[in-house]
Amino acid sequence: MIRSELLAALGQDYPDLRAEEVEQVVDIFFEEISQRLTEGGRVELRGFGAFSTREREARKGRNPRTGETVDVPAKRVPYFKPGKDMRRRLNDG
């Protein structure tokens, strides 16, 4: 599902909201998750899963075009761990 499909689905489920209001709610939702992760926090949505960040150490990589070895710096990356209910729904059918 892409963002526009999400907006359309929410618009159908909540016809009393204008399209601009639905878009604003979605924007706020994703901005709050992004902001919390940027601050090093964790976002847990019960029954769905938890978003957090993980540290990746610096490493040696390889440029696939030239084969040249390059240094890849350490960085934080987003991580999602599905909740128990989500795992059950995915595996039970």
TrEMBL record:
The keyword DNA-binding applies. CDD domains: IHF_B. It comes from the Bacteria. The keyword DNA-binding applies. Transmembrane segments: none annotated. Keywords: DNA-binding. Residues 54-74 are annotated as: Disordered. Belongs to the bacterial histone-like protein family. PANTHER family: DNA-BINDING PROTEIN HU, INTEGRATION HOST FACTOR SUBUNIT BETA. This is Integration host factor subunit beta. It comes from Qipengyuania mesophila.
